[in-house]
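Researcher: Good morning. I'm working through a list of sequences from a screen, and I'd like to move beyond sequence-only analysis. For each chain I'm collecting a predicted structure so we can compare shapes side by side. This is the next one on the list. No need for commentary yet; just the structure.
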Amino acid sequence: MEPGDRPGVQRPIRWRSPLRGPWLTSMFGAVLLIGMPVVISTGLLSYIAYGPQFGQAIPTDVGWLKLPTFDWPADPSWLYRLTQGLHVGLGLVLVPVVLAKLWSVIPRLFAWPPVRSVAQLAERVSLLMLVGGVLFEIVTGVLNIQYDYIFGFSFYTAHYFGAWVFIAGFLVHVTIKLPLMRAGLQSRSMRAVLRTSRADTVADPYEPDGLAPTDPDPATLSRRGALALVGGGAALVAALTAGQTIGGWARHAALLLPRGQTRGDGPNDFQVNRTAAAARITPDLTGDRWRLTLTGGPAPVMLDRTALTTMPQHTARLPVACVEGWSTTETWTGVPLRDLARLAGVPSPNSAFVRSLERRGAFNRATLQRNQVLHPDALLALTVNGADLSPDHGFPARIIVPALPGVHNTKWVGTIDFRATG
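Model: Good morning. Structure tokens for this chain:
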């Protein structure tokens, strides 16, 4: 570098695309301004759905970042399927837009000097939080979807706190940049952009501290081509991932996710997150000696599977939706939890603590809210799609509750403690 040269945006050989400028950056920013709040809000709703008031959401201790909690609704039954499907699906769809937005503003990341005022310092810090936060959330989120925990720390804890770093940066950045985005969108009309060919594409006028290059190269792509490229990438991601949540014919296209594509023909041939072998559930635990223990009333009540099958049965078609974004809807039959509560001597429980036969793991137990226990479709399921549960799906009995995160639909149930208080 010659004396007097400055790095970054002042070196035009690096940043010469004629597409960079206020309009294209503002267009990508507008898409993210619409989409990101949906991703953020559904992610925070997912945390609330796990029941942090019972200490079963991860992380458990979030300090002053504690969210206002409420009883997660049990209606409609597809609520968690919708919110978590949107969180994961829309988050993936926006990845091409995020990358395009970063490409459009990359000259500003190398501006020199990096800080010239207090206002610019606030902008740079917010940009660091915004870019670092969104990249961290994307990488850890994608790895979690693929069940690939190579990072060596708790995904749930890191993703929660990383989200707040991103949220803070996002709010500050929007506050600072919203007037500029509005001006950028007004600098060109969408109709004119869509009518402009590559040959007629020219760079925006250069401005100090702007995004337009000082010495632009000839355009190799029009602005409408850039929009089509990014939009096509987002549509491709949607086509390859959304089937996990939507189901039906779309599931065959879900090639990139581990719970997508097809399923078998048998009544138990649907998606499994944790197998009986992985949970160390052996036939001696679930055979003739198995008993369900109900507590909370005057005395424990013990029932074998035969006794449960002779009780009044209820059938409901309910989804199982998991935090990774996949879901499946099946037809379950079993004993309503509210009937078991009455049998236990707690006809109006405030909550129910369910424990699995699985001895290890953070999710071998779950606490259900009052509205979840008393919902008419909340079941201790014994069969699915007309057949006994398979070992992988929770034989001899499992919990199925409308709109409950999948991991809390406890499999291989051993005890249920109905609690009148607490």
